Amino acid sequence: MRIRLLPGERVLVRTRPNPLPLAGPVLAGFLLLALGGFGLGYLARPDLPGGLAEWQPVLLPVVLAVAVLMLLVVVARPMVRWAGNRYVLTSMRLIHRSGATRRTEHQISLAAISQLQTDQGLIQRMVGSGTLVADLGFDRAHAYRHVPQIATFKEYVVQAIGELPLTRMFDGVDMEIDPQYARGGTPRVQQEWRDAQP
User: Fold this and answer.
1) pLDDT digits (tens, 9 = 90+) for 125-167
2) Residue 77 lies in a domain
3) Domain end: 34, 65, 82, which one?
4) Which domain holds residue 28?
């Protein structure tokens, strides 16, 4: 996965989600294999009851096809979906790419992140993964699910945010008012500017 970097930008971390969500599909795959093997073994017996014996040539390929189809849906599809997910932390952005055939990309500028929050379930704590929620303010947030080594990843994000060049935010704090603007402004602004003068 190639990322077009901005001038001065460098990749810090490139990872896939933790494979913990694949535990269920893998266990289901083993169960499907066992049931499919049992069904095929039973249908391949020479002493089948009369009704099944005459349908044996049709039932064997049907059971095999159903087992393969179920394995593709239950096991292969989640694995392909997991393999298509990537989290990339650069010195300026947090990027989430997903999809194997149709690619989706979500980017967040590190300068836009106002708060980071982690969320871990019991099993996630045991394997060190979790969900990282980047709060962007104004009721906007983006969740990165099943991030491996969530505590370390969060530290890298915080460190990258701390290394960003300082910029002056337009929020009214530490702003100097131009005297010409204050004199030419509305009476309320003029009065506030006069009151602020020593």
Assistant:
1) 999 999 999 999 888 899 999 999 999 999 999 999 999 887 6
2) yes
3) 82
4) 21-82
Q: pLDDT digit string (tens) for 2-46?
A: 788 888 899 999 999 999 999 999 999 999 999 999 988 888 888
What average pLDDT does range 167-189 have in this prediction? 46
- Exposed / middle / buried, residue 94 (Cβ in 10 Å: 0-12, 13-18, 19+): buried
Q: Which tokens go with 31?
A: 């169960």
- Number of domains, the chain: 2
Q: CB–CB of 121/150 below 8 Å? A: no
Pick from 29, 54, 82: which residue ends a domain?
Answer: 82
d(C-alpha 182, C-alpha 189), whole Å = 6
Asked if residue 152 is part of any domain, the answer here is no
